[in-house]
Amino acid sequence: MNNITKRLEGRVAAILNSKELVINIGDQHGVRHGMKFAVLAESELEVRDPESGKLLDTIDREKVRVEASEVRKKISICRTYRIKKIPAGPLAKGALGIISLAELSRPPREIPETLSIHDSSILPPLPEEESYVKIKDRVIQVADE
Length: 145
Known about the structure:
It is built from two helices and ten strands. By secondary structure, it is mainly β.
């Protein structure tokens, strides 16, 4: 008997704001609150040999990770959840370098990951052209690292 569980796959159906998007799979597909998904480009990048034109391989890059925060029958609203940590400035650590005075004493910061190209804190609605995540991008269930 095969106990391997197939991971869920879907597509981005809508972009709500800089932190939330909607995917086209929901409760009826097995999505549960808290499940995590990687958002990938709409299709894999094909790498071809420049001389022969033959396909060498395909590359898939992750754009962002999201977590199901609201699960409905056919869709799920997902939210970014990872935090980027920016280290403190050199004086905060006791080291010196040649940088601006403001940078010298800057405390450590944590910045939430967003979908926005401009990484703004403005939430309501994010037009698709201002997002690096696009409608039809693939989503695939992932285990949290």
